[in-house]
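Slide 14.
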Amino acid sequence: MQPRVDFYTASPEALKAMIALETAVSKLPLEMSLIELVKLRASQINGCAFCVDMHAADARKAGETERRLYAVSVWREAPFFTPRERAALAWTESLTRLSETHAPDEDYVQLSAEFSASEMVDLTVAISTINSWNRLAVGFRKMPKE
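Slide 15: predicted structure.
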């Protein structure tokens, strides 16, 4: 695939806002391991090779195991995830596929059983942010380095 536009240089002000949002997400009081799983799963769904590569590497650097990383795409069938992680991954899928799912009540009930109200909002902002990055990277064909 051929890269299209370098979105960092094409619109520095827009990217400044995205970077500020990403910085805010990194300071939210959620487990970084959980955030990396969410970023990885949304990026898998959106077909973002750049973000899958980056977040798998970031998760490994943060101590995530290869076994769990390989299982993120099949987390429902894999026994390696906690109830909290499962709730976050279900919510990630629901919001990433919003036009198909409409954020079903069953996913919200699972989420609210594992997260406080503020954590649910924080997680939703993190999911929204990675989906925005995915749209930039996929739309403009940002590629991982070999």
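Speaker note: The longest helix spans residues 117-139.
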